């Protein structure tokens, strides 16, 4: 079994939010830790669930097909300071003993996460199957080679895998994976930090199918599988295809919702435990920390020390790469030819060879995507002249002589509005967000009338009492409202077009 193609993304899920900038135990944002994928003991009295369930579909199941899976999670262990016991401070956020950063060696007691992996396997076939894999991690206290003492609390759990064939010509099998925390927990009033030490943290599952079988995308299923996909129930996790675009033998069930075939940008050189932030900003801010702040961060956690060291030693040319990169659509999703040629499980062509029913894409049932395009653009000979892009995009008003934001007008309550009209804002007569509602009753000047590609009408306005209105006019950054969301303050004489 191999999960190497999914490891980089899976590691990013595993460490998301593990420790946040400025990477010090004393920082407020690091007082409440581990927000994703927490499976707590049943009866622990917290809002965290005790189990997660993944349901997905496997197609083209033949004799010999099998499902391998790997449960990955962080087991929280307490790093004990020179005099730390941790027991008296079980409710401390992320640590026991003294205040974090109170000694030159870092916080007295600090909770670290250590990767644990548990494997399971089940045969796929035309009969239902069930495999249960219990696991038990005993409480222990030990000392690492460097003399650091750790204590781990007891953690019991199980992986329950069930398979259920679905009637039909496509060889579909529904796979259900349930991950459970079965640790006995008698006290529902135990503080969250203590509960986390007997929890699965950042729990996620990698799944792999062999024997010519392949997974069905739950995000973009073929039409023939849409009803079966709709019947899948996923709780506290969501499965997506991983690996190169077109590959369908590998899946990641993550507590963070991802899209199919997620990947880490090639320009991202290190895991900074914050996939929602911009690497360049984090790196520059980390480089700007004082020596004292860096010393405290290094003493907080080994992963924090690696982040600080990475920022301090990053070569200028790699830092420049973080500033930005161009991506084209074909680069992001893969060309149709690459998708069609991508191997499925075991290096065989993806999708079944029998039965030869056609799916909604017009190709063989279970094919990874639509057949190669035969439109004129792709069928052009190799010596065809290069595409000459227009001077302006097609949606720019300047490319359509029939559209003129400065001259067009639309009917509104009280008359007709055009550039220069004064209006009263009345949002809420259609779906509006909080930002719009804050502007209810304000007076505004119409800067132009715009139409979207669906024929919708919009008034671009600036607020009369906005001291920065002239800057918004200069940049062309307006607020937009539909005609029914404004009332005319000074009726004009022209009729609506």
UniProtKB/TrEMBL annotation:
Specify the domain of life of the species encoding this protein: Bacteria
List the biased-composition ranges (Low complexity): 82-93, 340-357
Q: Where is the composition biased (Pro residues)?
A: 383-392
Task: Name the chain's protein.
Answer: Uncharacterized protein
Stretch list, region Disordered: 82-111, 340-400
